[in-house]
Amino acid sequence: MGNENTAFEGKVALVTGAARGQGRSHALAFAERGADLVICDRCADTAGVAYALGTQEELAETARLIEGLGRKVISAKVDTQDRPALEQLVARAEEEFGHVDIAVANAGVSGMSPITEHSQAVWDDVVGTNLTGVFNTLAAVAPGMAQRGYGRIVTVSSMLGRSSAPTQAAYTASKWGVIGMSKSVAQELAHSGVTVNIVAPGNIDTPMVRNDNLFRTIRPDLDAPTWDDVAPILGMLHAQPVAILDPAEVTRAVLFLTDEASAHITGIVIPVDAGAATRTSA
Ligand SMILES: NC(=O)c1ccc[n+]([C@@H]2O[C@H](COP(=O)([O-])OP(=O)(O)OC[C@H]3O[C@@H](n4cnc5c(N)ncnc54)[C@H](O)[C@@H]3O)[C@@H](O)[C@H]2O)c1
């Protein structure tokens, strides 16, 4: 095994949805280990998502933190649903850095809604970002990686990518889709030195989970539910007795899958979900 602190020296990593949450955690971990970064975020709210998304200030803060670690960063306000914009970002990174070696298709949104009230906006936003956005990311980085004969791609599914839950029709559709799509692309790129793997997080401590809208959806019986009211319910989704995990736990799996030495691991799903997948997957 190489030195953990220099494992990504000379590498360039693209992380989508990097303004905050898991995306920021992954980006900083790559920077700490020597990589230069390409980061993007939509930096805008949208009708089908009932909580605030990342902001331009937060994306700028991620970039500042990367630079503070002595690494270079290209940072852009790009919505992963916009394939030409994503392709332009990758082209700019290939021009300025010479190569993009790693991509983490992390940008995602949650839209909980009973099927009787499931609006077109929720479906469009959730599937548009979580499935089409991940496809666009794969499509933007794959040509350059295949041509150069090297790449490590990680897509982000969820424990709901292999299970189901009420109010999650769009989200489960998108996250099941990410797994099938990623495995297909893993096969396609198997002859090119490019691996494609999937992480499937459980409840992770980011604003996607820790927001009032989610609290109210889980506890409609309460006027102003708090974290303490929802934690026991969220905890039941896991097998281990823990309601929520730190983003750093997902980052550890991302670092493992994107390591140069993980050359012959492709098409797998790593759950980081306190044992939730024991109930749904072989
Ligand atoms: N938090 C959890 O419990 C959990 C569980 C399972 C899977 N996930 C997945 O992990 C990933 C990261 O989520 P998080 O927990 O860090 O949430 P988060 O809301 O804190 O961060 C997501 C970031 O992605 C950005 N984003 C959303 N749509 C975008 C788009 N179309 N283009 C560019 N950027 C976009 C947001 O602005 C935000 O900054 C998502 O794919 C999510 O579905 C999260």
From TrEMBL:
GO terms for molecular function: oxidoreductase activity, acting on the CH-OH group of donors, NAD or NADP as acceptor. SUPFAM superfamilies: NAD(P)-binding Rossmann-fold domains. The keyword Metal-binding does not apply. It comes from the Bacteria. Coiled coil: none annotated. InterPro entries: NAD(P)-bd_dom_sf (IPR036291), Sc_DH/Rdtase_CS (IPR020904), SDR_fam (IPR002347), SDR_subfam_1 (IPR023985). Pfam families: adh_short. Keywords: NAD, Oxidoreductase. The keyword Oxidoreductase applies. PROSITE patterns: ADH_SHORT. Belongs to the short-chain dehydrogenases/reductases (SDR) family. This is Mycofactocin-coupled SDR family oxidoreductase. It comes from Speluncibacter jeojiensis.
